[in-house]
Amino acid sequence: MTSRLPTLVVGGGISGLACAYALRNKGIDTILLEVSSRAGGVIRSEARDGFLFECGPQSFSSTPILLKLIHELGLDHQLVQAPPRAPRYVLINGKLRPVPLSPQALLASSLLSLSTKWSILREPFGSTRPPGADESVADFVRRKFTPELLDRLAGPFVSGIYAGDPETLSFRAAFPQLHAAEKSAGSLLRGMMRAAKARKEPRHRPLLLSFHDGNEILVRALADRLGPSLHYDVEVREILHTGADSFRVAAQSPGGALEFEGSRVVLATPTFVSSLLLKNSLPRCEQSLNEICYAPVAVVSLGYRRSDVGHSLEGFGFLVPRSAELRSLGTVWNSSLFPGRAPQNHVLLTSFVGGATDPAAIELSPGDLAALVHRELSAVLDFRQHPAITNVTIYRRAIPQYNLGHTHRLTAIESARAASRGIWLSGNYFCGPAIGSCIESALSVAEEVRLSYNS
């Protein structure tokens, strides 16, 4: 039996959920097909024994569009904000050193040498231009500043966002606003100030947020709004272009084969899935999609009795430079940021292991990963006993890497897509992996789909 409707969205992660929700709000009959038995992708919260584990993103930064969506979904009462002045740390020579967050703090900090401080302070008064060829984050930092800044701040920062390797991550693709600032003004600071003056909308100061009952609350709210238009356990096998404005989608469910027909298809799936689905209807996309690789990540949460942790845990957490020679990329102090993350007299910490620089780490068992993180953090945070509880989630393909050539790949993908009327792509490989970025990109795609019906 064939189901016919105008628009199909494939993939029930945050991008697919937001896109399908927006399309239906615009009055466009839409269904969402999700291969698993739940929606949300890596956004997953798990409550157990009084602890609230985030198995993917631990928090999110606010954007005006994201806050508007949260309000539409009636989730304002669920929002919780992390302490805005919570210090961040970086592990240097076995000690946690606060990251300077202001010019005054930078001058007073012992984290960086005088030469690195000078390279930062003189930046607004010099003039440089990015090279014509794509440049890695590491090459950018060494060119503009110093290797020390790369090791102690920029590299760990890249690990915290992308779980990536600064030697291969494209500065232009991963940090487009900073690249544009240098290109337009010869200076990051002058360029950002110029862009701020040109901005018409009021400036938004991002807040670090979560939900009282976990980040999955957002996913569940979107899924609830979609209702029966969200189909679980449906594996899309093939997408065929059957006419100028017609597609046939072949799928498989536990109940047997399914077939859908529509005039618009949005693929909100990982690149390695999208390339397979488009090999017949949009083969020109296949190579560029396959060139986008993903970093593997293990999310390791450890809960302790408060009396068994010697460190105060006052702050956001800390990042780890690769020169520290630890396998942990960084640690978030969940129970210091948001209420309800741990029972009374307990604390919860979440660490990340693996990434682009240590892909073999995810081959360890969950028990070995928990033991590894406990062992590496014991000397830093003064653990006196083993954790009271552990929770480990392993993603073999966690975060898309915006590696050198990424901008060119996206251009090629968009060029091929635009030449084939009726197909759109959405996902965290376009505008950044943050929840807010994914939602904004998905809503933009939904608007393009709407406009296509009027063209």
Give a written overview of the molecule.
This protein has 455 residues and is of the alpha/beta class. The chain has 3 domains: 172 residues, FAD/NAD(P)-binding domain (3-Layer(bba) Sandwich), CATH 3.50.50; 100 residues, Orthogonal Bundle (protoporphyrinogen ix oxidase, domain 3), CATH 1.10.3110; 107 residues, Polyamine Oxidase, Chain A, domain 2, CATH 3.90.660. The chain has 16 helices and 21 strands. The strands form 5 sheets. A 7-stranded mixed beta sheet has the order 9-8-17-18-19-16-20. A 5-stranded parallel beta sheet has the order 11-3-2-15-21, with helices on one face. Strands 1-14-13-12 form a 4-stranded mixed beta sheet, with no helix packed on it. A hairpin with a 2-residue loop joins β13 and β14. The model has no long low-confidence stretch (mean pLDDT 94).
